[in-house]
Design brief:
single chain; about 625 residues; Rossmann fold; Beta-lactamase; six-stranded mixed beta sheet
Length: about 625
Amino acid sequence: MKSKRIVSIVVFGLIVVITPVIFALKSQVNAPLKRTINELNTDNKVSFNQIDWNAFESIEQKITVLKNTSVNFPLRKLNQKIARISIGTNTGYFTDALELFADVDRFYFETLEEAIQKFPAEINQYDVIITAFHEHAEAPFNKIRLKDFLVELPSNKQLIGVIFGNPMEIVNEPSFEKMNTIIVGYENTLYAQDRIAQLIFGAIPASGKLPFSINDKYPKNAGILIESSGRLKFSQPEEFGISSSKFNRIDSIVTASIAKGAFPGCQIVVAYKGKIIYRKAFGRPTYESEKVVENSDVYDIASVSKIAGSTVGIMKLESEGKFSLNNNLGDYLPELTKNTSFHSILIKDMMAHQSGLTAWIPFYKRTMQNGEWKSHLYSTLKKPGYETQVAHNLYIKDSYADTIYHQILASTLGPKKYEYSDLGYYFIKKIIEKQSAQNFQDYLMNALYLPMGLRSMRYQPLNYFAKTKIIPTENDQVFRKQLVHGYVHDPGAAMLGGVGGHAGVFSNATDLASLMQLFLNKGMYGNEQYLSSAVVANYTKQQFQGNRRGAGFDRPKASGGGTCHELASQESYGHSGFTGTLVWADPKHEINYVFLSNRVCPSQDNWKIRDLNIRTEIQRVIYEALNENK
């Protein structure tokens, strides 16, 4: 804000105190801003430091919500169409920050005159319209043109007005009252743009008060308290008094692991007390690739799908009274299990891997002869009867899914003792489809992924993402005869068209961290209660004495450690995946850890990730760094 802006405010007699209340950050914040929001929040090349944190913290405390008449603010379910209209200069940081949370269509105008002349006719297609006024370096907004612009905004939509700069002229315009929510950021800096974007999505609270009077309706000290909604905040260790350098040891472990050939690349997210304090991508999709892994790329998460798909699906159904762990398999699938020993399997036993199910059946082997696909079962072209895609240019006979289930039902049930098995999740998929009356993936999308804003969490990722955004897995020369890229690695899930109860989900680490935070929040995310807190508590606890497993979740050994590091508490839970993945949540320590890699690229026989104990060594660094501050 230039000195003439300050003078004009004083002339109007509307500011009681300007300095240092409003402009305490000016000297450090109005310097040339070369870093983008994504660099500050996610990029590997730029790390936060204490100076950055001081600026973020200061503006976060100042942001003021003057008005809010919407029950949907902060934004709750994100399966809405959202538009952002920005007017002014230096607007890009705001867009970057908004898109950390949701897909937001952009409309940019440098002046009000341009905004009026080119007002987007398609704006009525949107549910939420965020209109941001970015302080222009040369001149204030023209009040007449402001009124003309505001008239264009549809009154039957959720309107959020954001002011990056002096609020005086804008808020005093009577037409501005059509906004459902009015937010004042006081300055047009990346710090303010980042924090207001996070406020809009509920990742941070707002408690700021006006340091001066605007008018009778908004006097000095006006401001509405807005609580955070449980959505993950993008932050840094310095928020907790911890230096970011404490996490440099993670970088060293990963760099050394890539050099040793443990995996070509990976993503890591660490959240503490609901705040992401470490988020990085390393390496490349393959050892030969020129492209680097980005935080937005998606990985095949393998058996972590058991949490991200089947388990959370039945947790949702049980929260709605449509499912119970205490029922038998035959209670839900009598048409499939009648006259078999599977009919009386207790689902709680099945979800804790102690129902006697065979560990694994290599279904694909029966479809091959002498190392080649049986011609009556496969086609290299999509055609009637062969529309179930297994891999690139490979389709299996549609009816073969029934054969897979017949093979499972023909297998022998062993004793009721702990033995990890994929097979129970084939049945969970069918239960979810029957109880929800939707396709498995459609139910998960509609009930959880879309409203939560999990934009990367998908089955059959090629239907949603460019192939360049999908990390390849194995160069499979035994079954699929190709580099598996964009198709699920697990052969059984592949033979079901890529949608399995036990495997098939693709995701980035950030969305998985959001899902794990849903569990840590006892079923709530973004002010929406997706799962019953009692259901979350029941599924994540140990189900049987002598068996460490929860219902769908892995847990630590009784002596500590196991899939997780021994520093993780006995209250913690998570899951690992064959492709080189791990998610782990610790309610006691409020730690949320996600590690994604493609260690099976190019070969699944590469077990260096396990032999070098890489995932749990990184987890050790996390616990030690956070515990050093206590």
